[in-house]
Amino acid sequence: MTYYLSEPLLLEKRGAIVKNRFMKSAMSEGMASEDHAPTEELIHLYERWAEGGAGLVVTGNVMITGDALGEPGNVVLEDASDLHLFRKWAKAGKKNGNEFWMQINHPGKQVVRGLVKEGHAPSAIPFSPDLQRFFAPPRALTTAGIHEVIRRFKRTALLAKEAGFTGVQIHAAHGYLISQFLSPRHNQRTDEWGGPIENRARFLREVCRAVRSEVGEDYPVGVKINSADFMKAGFTEEESIYVIKSLEEFGIDLIEISGGTYEKAVMTGKGTTESKREAYFLEYAERLKKETTIPIAVTGGFRTKEGMEQALAAGGTDMIGLARPLAVDPSIPDKLLKGELETLDLPAVKTGIPAIDKGGMMEIMWFSQQLDRIGKGQEAKPNFSPKLSLLKSLWENGTGILKKRRV
């Protein structure tokens, strides 16, 4: 029997009601057209996720400018030229009475070599040597450049609203541009945008202020943010709590908790021992709940219905975020709510070749293939061999598949 999972969540400031406590969290689909618009396959994928029963469905990265692409296949929404396709996407993604939010993002210096000549960042600090071969060299944003990025965030948010998305989520986690501003490891500016956390948080606060002023008081706005970067001289839990508390004045409706960056990818469950329970960031979320009135969603690591119910009952989170399990079965929320499923079993995606398996790149490729299948109207193949998956990717795309891909 479900109780907490099936309970609606009222976003009080906006009067919006999320019909249950499941959130389909963002995954990078890489399924945009050559001009970075939604494709029929992407639209069908989200129709399946809407039909799957989650109360809130969040898109993968939608970039705010075509000048800053995190990876091939990114969707970009920077003007109204393809708005009819975004309207079609919004209609499909909310067809089951669910909320459908667009995640809006700027990758900062996490831009793949070959797509752009250089990345934009708070400071011109390159990645560690082992990652520099993947990412373009960074250039520090000028003050004028910072304000231009803020303008683009609010423009994309307004276009999302016009297209029919029921809300937006600002991506401030995983080492993308806003996350870079928050981190003293990557932000070493000496002006009003750097230094103490009050200054490093200014960029996110100004993005939230601009987005709220553009979309109005009746439109839901969420933020995805790290609990910490889990790196030396990085963004800390104490700083994260300070930043989230400072966002209350902008009427933020939901905070999704994650953690790590692509230098330390704990958001995939690798390298973190922070939580002794299913969810990776639940202890932090329980601490955060004592400090803020903003509803919280925790994504990553939930694998049993019992664990989800316990997390909600204990008040550590208001929503259960699911990502990779929904790449294998889009109907998991519906099955859990109906009592048809108790445990989520994800396959171990390993080829046995250490150079390929290292860092989780094989997993990302395998799950991306599952999304492609669903988008084409096929069923996912949970038992598909990782070795065959690798061969398929090499045949279709060449060795370029071994470049960094997003989670």
From TrEMBL:
One of its GO terms (molecular function) is oxidoreductase activity. SUPFAM superfamilies: FMN-linked oxidoreductases. CDD domains: OYE_like_2_FMN. It comes from the Bacteria. InterPro entries: Aldolase_TIM (IPR013785), NADH_flavin_oxidoreductase (IPR051799), OxRdtase_FMN_N (IPR001155). Residues 17-339 form the NADH:flavin oxidoreductase/NADH oxidase N-terminal domain. Keywords: Flavoprotein, Oxidoreductase. PANTHER family: BINDING OXIDOREDUCTASE, PUTATIVE (AFU_ORTHOLOGUE AFUA_2G08260)-RELATED. This is 2,4-dienoyl-CoA reductase.
